Design the sequence.
């Protein structure tokens, strides 16, 4: 079992590196990358922790003239991302290829961690396909490899490791240090990217959901208390991040041009969501692996979205696991809150993709058992979809490689 896990983990790593990383030796920077690298040239190694006093948007877009006006809400406070880019600059200079390889390395690592998590619930072949679905998800087509987007990939690494150590503490009854390490890794993910901010809410929901399954006769209040106790460390990590952000960027009136440029309030929120209907259609399309469709195919896209959604949800309904589906969908929303509340870009749902992979893996496992006599045909079809994803991503990487070279020269 261990040898098989190790072999398949190495296989996942190799195929990702061989298709998404190694071939693109002429990789370049985009405009946001250039801003970050240009600033890295001016910072000495002894000054690296000065990044805790600034924000990514100030560095990338050279907004020093209004840095004192940036507020708690409209700034991109991601000091650990800037520190990691700075360290890479000392190692690789202005060779964009090595930054690409670092990003792909962490993406491969995420895929391997997810594979090992899926193995706790599914067979080896199904877990492998679920991990590869994540690894070659079509939402990666236009951003994986950008220095400015490296934070999404590494932040998920910390989130997944945090979940692994939480499992070690809670499920495997490991020592308390697993819990502290899990909370610390979550804090690191926040210092890279604020998209994991609501992970404490996910931990609370996850513990309550598991307690409801393990101890059905346990009193409702006891389950809530158990979930609250375990989520406390993550809440404190979030508070620590928010206080640090508030210290350097106090709460003040938003002057526009930041991460959040809309008005706050329920009326404004619902109006904005009504105007974003096609944004959500695009998001649903990407979630269901339909990025290859051209934008104007509205009827075909809508039909496929409904059909694929039914295919994914049906196994949960038949097996009376609707609560599990609701929890997984809730998890997806928790880690893609920025795309839901503000604006959609494919990279904004990267942290949520493991939960989508879990839903897909569960459904695939169901259909393989139900149609056991047609198992080989089904596996052949799924492998064909994965091969199509790989070809699509390779084609996209070649196009973007040329574009980034032009930006660099």
Sequence:
């Amino acid at each position: 079992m261990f040898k098989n896990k190790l072999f398949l983990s190495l296989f996942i790593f190799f195929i990702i590196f061989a298709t998404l990383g190694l071939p693109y030796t002429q990789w370049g920077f985009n405009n946001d990358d250039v801003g970050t690298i240009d600033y890295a040239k001016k910072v000495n190694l002894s000054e690296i922790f000065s990044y805790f006093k600034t924000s990514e948007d100030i560095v990338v877009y050279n907004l020093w003239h209004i840095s004192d006006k940036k507020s708690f809400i409209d700034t991109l406070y991601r000091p650990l991302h800037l520190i990691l880019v700075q360290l890479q600059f000392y190692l690789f200079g202005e060779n964009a290829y090595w930054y690409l390889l670092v990003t792909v390395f962490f993406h491969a690592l995420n895929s391997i961690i997810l594979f090992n998590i899926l193995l706790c619930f599914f067979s080896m072949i199904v877990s492998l396909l679920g991990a590869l679905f994540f690894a070659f998800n079509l939402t990666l087509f236009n951003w994986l490899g950008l220095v400015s987007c490296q934070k999404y990939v590494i932040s998920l690494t910390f989130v997944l490791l945090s979940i692994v150590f939480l499992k070690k503490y809670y499920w495997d009854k490991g020592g308390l240090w697993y819990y502290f390490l899990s909370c610390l890794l979550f804090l690191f993910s926040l210092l890279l990217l604020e998209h994991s901010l609501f992970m404490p809410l996910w931990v609370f929901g996850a513990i309550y959901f598991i307690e409801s399954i393990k101890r059905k006769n346990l009193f409702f209040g006891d389950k809530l208390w158990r979930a609250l106790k375990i989520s406390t460390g993550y809440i404190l990590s979030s508070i620590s991040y928010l206080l640090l952000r508030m210290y350097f960027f106090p709460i003040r009136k938003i002057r526009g041009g930041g991460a959040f440029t809309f008005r706050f309030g329920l009326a404004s929120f619902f109006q904005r969501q009504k105007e974003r209907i096609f944004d959500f259609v695009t998001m649903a399309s990407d979630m269901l692996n339909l990025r290859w469709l051209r934008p104007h195919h509205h009827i075909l896209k809508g039909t496929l979205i409904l059909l694929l959604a039914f295919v994914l949800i049906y196994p949960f309904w038949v097996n009376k696991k609707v609560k599990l589906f609701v929890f997984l969908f809730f998890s997806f929303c928790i880690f893609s809150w920025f795309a839901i509340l503000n604006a959609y870009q494919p990279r904004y749902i990267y942290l949520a993709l493991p939960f989508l992979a879990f839903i897909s893996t569960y459904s695939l496992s169901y259909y393989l058992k139900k149609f056991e006599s047609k198992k080989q045909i089904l596996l052949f079809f799924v492998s064909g979809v994965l091969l199509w994803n790989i070809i699509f991503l390779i084609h996209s990487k070649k196009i973007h490689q040329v574009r980034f070279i032009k930006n660099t020269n």
Summary: The mean pLDDT is 89.
